[in-house]
Design goal:
Mean pLDDT of chain A: 84
Mean pLDDT of chain B: 83
Number of domains of chain B: 2
Radius of gyration of chain B: 28 Å
CATH architecture of the largest domain in chain A: Beta Barrel
Largest sheet of chain B: 6 strands, antiparallel, barrel
Number of strands of chain B: 20
Largest interface: A-B, 66 and 68 residues
Helix content of chain A: 10-25%
CATH architecture of the largest domain in chain B: Beta Barrel
CATH topology of the largest domain in chain A: Thrombin, subunit H
Largest sheet of chain A: 8 strands, mixed
Number of helices of chain B: 6
Number of strands of chain A: 36
Order of helices and strands of chain B: HHEEEEEEEEEEEEEEHHEEHEEHEE
Low-confidence stretches of chain B: 1-27
Oligomer: heterodimer
Number of domains of chain A: 5
Strand order of the largest sheet of chain A: 29-30-32-31-33-34-35-36
Structural class of chain A: alpha+beta
Distance between the termini of chain B: 108 Å
Chain lengths: ~700, ~350
């Protein structure tokens, strides 16, 4: 996002400077430190483990069991604590030594210096051998620079050239391969069900010169983190051990250390948390599960199924599909809006977050068995996740609906028919009433818009249209949205006698508690609360705005087009910032609570910096903003995916001599690549604010945002 | 009622017993409390120059003789005529600098006092990776007067050498260190004592130091062995000078062209050092190097770019033999060659 300060790695690293508060008791060790094996035997003979051990366990298992038994009985008083301290130390060292032969150091040569503004490390990184034939897993962090050559240095110092076999873009791991005649040392994974919060966790890396891996000791802080993809530890995890193993006290591997972030993805996500008490490892069992696919050179990606859920309460709402893009695997498999997903692969889904967990931990190409509740029916589907869904393009019928008082109607009465549209081709005319869609009754324009979001451009559609007393059955093929503005528009509604009680009108100052910014609100004198009004958010250019001039331009327009105008003032009149974004959201909430606002006709309109802010506003408040009208303004951040449920339409201006000319051209391409409808007003040579004619086009564009 | 009252009484007794046992464990022989109590009198708080522009005016140190020899890090804090050493009992004594080793960044101070608790450098210990350690220092200057130094707990993360990679660490010191799994890299901690679980001296906490290659902070201590080595010179009041290997003058320094190597054009910040052309009848050609070979090591030092390769060769006298390791396909090949090779 534009307002997030870019994290510049080389100048502002996160520096953990907190003193360690944990101080453990340390007692007198025995005179001479016994050999590890001897200590284990001694313990075994002195204290019988509480639970009988089944098969002949390795020495470390005996020790661990003995320690546990010891801790759980009242023998603390009977023996000095020093034994425990010493035995713990030795068990930790033994666990590290046990895994050390499978921990390799990796050097890279050549490659990028930086990724974005992040300075990439060129230091050694760590890898973990996962097969005797020479497959090595490491963190994708060390390979963000796309190095020209990779070298693995084994525990015994042997240098072997390595090649990058495949990348797991979901868990941020890479698989490397070295050629070797000798079988390499491997490790034993800890089953996920055995991982417990509080157990010892030893992080190993091999990034310092010297024979042994570097160790950091902590505990397992949490399991099933980051959508079940990671185990969390308080051992220090940093570039010094990314790619190395997180080991349990028995010398088995819990996971592979990686920087991960619940909020972001990418090779550098989570790096800012290094050594901070929060570190992650991808469970080795999960790595081994996908190893065969990676070994075939297959890059793995997160998978999507192409449904939108209602985003209200992730942790308490059921997983009901709100929208399902037609070209998505979910739609193709037969899922439809309104279906409630109740099972994935036999596991019950009660809340949205459970479904997200199931999907996020899998890869593109994985097949999910879904059970859904549709009405009284239970239906089952197989859905194959895909890496990405082609951008969604909104289908278009070609009408503007009439606006009814209090939304009281059934069906959709046509206000205007776009020439050359599917509606025109089917001879739909103004005043016709659309009553059935695919045989089901239409309640109102919002209902029609929502139901159309499950169709795609080119889909066939059956409509029943009422003209007078005659009902016609029509079949039409949906088209793409037009990018031109209707030359003239008939009235959208009847003029009714105004009710006696109406909220405040005219120019009104608007203040939001806790915000310093000011905002001008203009509600036309003719405001009728029984109808819904468009909302235009004016975002001033550099220097702010004059209230009189603004009102002179908008007063008449608001009355003629059923519009309410809000004009916030930026904290710094010359530029918009993140604080203004929060302020505007509060302003919009306030206006929507006081006045009757049409959710389809809320648009952000701005000039230069204000135009850039209009994009930021629209991309950040996707649930509110339906249109962006940016005059002589660059696109300050890449546009998000087009979303069937959160429609967004763009109007912008171009001018050959504009400072932003090239950026605006790029913006048009970027927006159209994501299949947004972009209406372009060419201002000729010099960029400026809108002429009177252009302004009236803007008003008609605003008035047609509810097109269907 | 009766039974409830009884079980309550039992519970109270249990709690009393548990807390008594906890208290007992806390002061048991060899407990942390005891080890800390034994070490604290040997640790001192040092105050000197600084105190402005984000520079702290304090650091840590420890006693190494009964009559007031204090070992600490050499830093701007000592760059004043009024250095104060505060003992664990709150006595504040003026200290003078006896000797310094600017490369090791250690200094020996002297205070006028007798019969002080101290570490015996000759009896000092070594620790292995994974060993539990304690760090005693006045980090952040939180301790004043007779307040004891702060104790931190951790393990030895690595035993390594700072000189391993030139330019990686921004410090003049290149030598063995304990890398610590504890956040000791804090203002004021430098000069503090690193001990084992029994309170035996392992080393001196180093200055704040960042790993320039990973941009992470390094928590480390300089081992006692290294300190012991320079102590005699420090005692003699000399500024320890080390033999610096004479730099090779540019006219004697080696470069790729002298070996008959032409590298690919150096267009990137980190252009991989691929060989573009091997001049015929050159030392490189005779050693069997080929175009498209990628140079990985020069005398066992990793070179990650064309720049690094040139820099590494400049450290070699053109009359000396240089060992190059190249990667060809998926094969590592090692060759030895010298610019001055007489033509056969």
């Amino acid at each position: 996002m534009i307002f997030l300060a870019a994290h510049v790695w080389d100048t502002t690293p996160f520096v953990p400077q907190s003193p360690s508060p944990s101080v453990r008791p340390v007692l007198q060790p025995p005179e001479r430190r016994p050999r590890f094996r001897a200590a284990a035997v001694a313990i075994d003979s002195l204290w019988r483990p509480a639970a009988p051990l089944t098969s002949r366990p390795p020495a470390m298992a005996v020790l661990a069991a003995a320690l546990l038994a010891w801790l759980s009985t009242g023998t603390r008083l009977a023996r000095p604590q020093s034994d425990l301290e010493l035995l713990e130390e030795q068990a930790i060292q033994a666990a590290a030594e046990h895994v050390a032969p499978a921990v390799v150091s990796i050097e890279t040569v050549g490659g990028l210096e930086r990724l974005g503004q992040v300075l990439l490390s060129s230091g050694p990184t760590t890898g973990l051998i996962v097969s005797p034939e020479g497959y090595i897993v490491s963190s994708a962090f060390g390979f963000a620079s796309k190095p020209a050559s990779i070298l693995a240095i084994l525990a015994d110092g042997t240098r072997l050239p390595a090649r990058l076999v495949a990348t797991d873009h979901n868990r941020m791991l890479v698989l490397l391969k070295v050629e070797t005649d000798q079988p390499l040392a491997t490790v034993q994974p800890v089953p996920e069900e055995e991982m417990q919060v509080g157990q010892w966790a030893i992080a190993l890396g091999r990034t310092y010169e010297g024979g042994q891996p570097n160790v950091s000791v902590g505990i397992v802080s949490a399991t099933q983190r980051i959508w079940g993809k990671a185990v969390q530890t308080d051992a220090k995890v940093s570039p010094a051990n990314y790619g190395g193993p997180l080991v349990d006290i028995r010398g088995r591997v819990l996971g592979v250390l990686v920087p991960l972030s619940p909020m972001h993805s990418g090779q550098m996500a989570g790096v800012e948390w290094y050594d901070s008490g929060i570190g992650f490892a991808v469970p080795l069992v999960q790595v081994l599960q996908v190893l065969p696919r990676l070994q075939q050179g297959q890059d793995l990606y997160p998978g999507v199924m192409g449904i939108s859920l209602s985003t209200e309460r992730l942790h308490s709402s059921p997983a009901v599909i709100a929208a399902c893009v037609p070209n998505s695997p979910a739609y193709k498999a037969g899922l439809r809006p309104g279906d409630r997903i109740i099972e994935v692969d036999g596991r019950p889904i009660e809340r949205q977050v459970q479904l997200l967990n199931e999907v996020h931990r899998r890869y593109a190409g994985d097949v999910l068995s879904l059970a859904v509740q549709r009405g009284e029916q239970r239906l089952e589907f197989q859905v194959e996740l895909v890496r990405e869904i082609p951008p969604y393009q909104r289908p278009f019928l070609g009408i503007l609906p009439r606006r009814e008082a209090d939304g009281a109607s059934s069906g959709v009465t046509v206000r205007y028919v776009y020439p050359d549209s599917p509606a025109a081709a089917a001879d739909i005319q103004p005043a016709d009433r659309l009553v059935l869609l695919e045989g089901k009754p239409l309640t109102n324009a919002e209902d029609l818009a929502l139901r159309l979001s499950s169709f795609e451009v080119g889909s066939r559609l059956r409509l029943a249209v009422e003209r007078g007393h005659e009902v016609r059955q029509l079949e039409l093929v949906l088209a793409a949205e037009p990018e031109n503005i209707p030359p003239e528009l008939p009235p959208a509604r009847d003029a009714l006698p105004l009710p006696p009680e109406r909220p405040a009108r005219g120019p009104l100052p608007l203040k939001i508690p806790e915000f310093q910014q000011e905002c001008l609100l203009y509600v036309p004198e003719s405001y009728d609360p029984r109808f819904r009004y468009g909302l235009a958010v004016w975002l001033h250019g550099p220097g702010g705005f004059q209230e009189e001039a603004l009102l002179a331009r908008w007063q008449r327009a608001c009355a003629d087009h059923d519009l309410i105008l809000v004009a916030p003032r930026a904290l710094d009149p010359n530029q918009w910032g993140r604080a203004d974004l929060e302020f505007i959201r509060k302003v919009l909430d306030e206006v929507r609570s006081r006045y009757s606002i049409d959710p389809l006709r809320v648009a952000a309109h701005g000039y230069q910096t204000g135009g850039a802010m209009a994009y930021v506003l629209a991309f950040n408040l996707r649930d509110l903003i339906r249109g962006v009208a940016a005059v002589d303004a660059p696109l300050p951040l890449p546009p998000p995916e087009n979303d069937p449920l959160q429609r967004l339409t763009v109007l912008l201006t171009t001018a050959r001599a504009s400072t932003y000319a090239r950026q605006i051209d790029a913006a048009i391409s970027a927006l159209r690549a994501r299949k947004y409808s972009v209406t372009v007003l060419d201002q000729g040579d010099q960029a400026r604010y809108l002429s009177d004619d252009e302004f009236s086009q803007l008003l008609r564009w605003l008035d047609s945002l509810d097109r269907i | 009622m009766v039974s409830a009252g009884l079980s309550l009484a039992v519970a109270v007794c249990l709690m009393a017993w548990l807390s008594a046992s906890a208290a007992f464990a806390g002061s048991a022989p060899g407990s942390l409390a005891e080890v800390a109590a034994a070490v604290q009198p040997k640790v001192v708080k040092i105050f000197g120059a600084g105190g402005y522009r984000g520079l702290e005016h304090y650091q840590s140190g420890f006693l190494i003789s009964p009559d007031g020899d204090v070992l600490t890090v050499w830093s701007y804090v000592l760059d004043t005529d009024s250095i104060q050493v505060v003992l664990h009992d709150g006595r504040a004594l003026a200290a003078r600098v006896v000797g310094v080793d600017p490369r090791l960044e250690v200094a020996l101070l002297k205070i006028e006092a007798q019969g002080l608790d101290h570490f015996d450098l000759d009896a000092a210990e070594r620790a292995s990776v994974g060993a539990r350690v304690l760090a005693f220092s006045n980090l952040y200057g939180v301790a004043t007067g007779d307040e004891p130094a702060s104790v931190q707990h951790g393990v030895v993360s690595a035993v390594t050498r700072l000189e391993a990679r030139r330019g990686v660490f921004e410090t003049p010191y290149r030598g063995p260190v304990y890398v610590l799994d504890a956040i000791t890299n804090n203002p004021g901690a430098a000069g503090g004592a690193l001990t084992d679980r029994r309170g035996r001296l392992l080393g001196m906490l180093g200055k704040e130091l960042r790993n320039a290659q990973t941009n992470t902070w390094l928590n480390y201590a300089v081992p006692v062995d290294v300190l012991r080595e320079v102590l005699p010179q420090l005692r003699e009041g000399r500024v320890v000078q080390r033999d610096v290997p004479p730099a090779i003058s540019p006219e004697n320094a080696l470069n790729p062209e002298l070996l008959g190597l032409i590298l690919v054009p150096d267009v990137l910040e980190r252009t991989p050092p691929f060989i573009d052309v091997v001049l015929s009848d050159s030392p490189a050609a005779r050693a069997g190097l080929l175009p498209d070979d990628l140079v990985l090591f020069v005398n066992d030092r990793l070179v990650q770019s064309c720049k690094a390769l040139r820099a590494e060769l400049e450290r070699v006298d053109r009359l000396d033999i240089v060992r190059l390791t190249v990667i060809r396909g998926q094969q590592l090949i090692e060759v030895e060659l010298a610019a001055g090779d007489p033509t056969p």
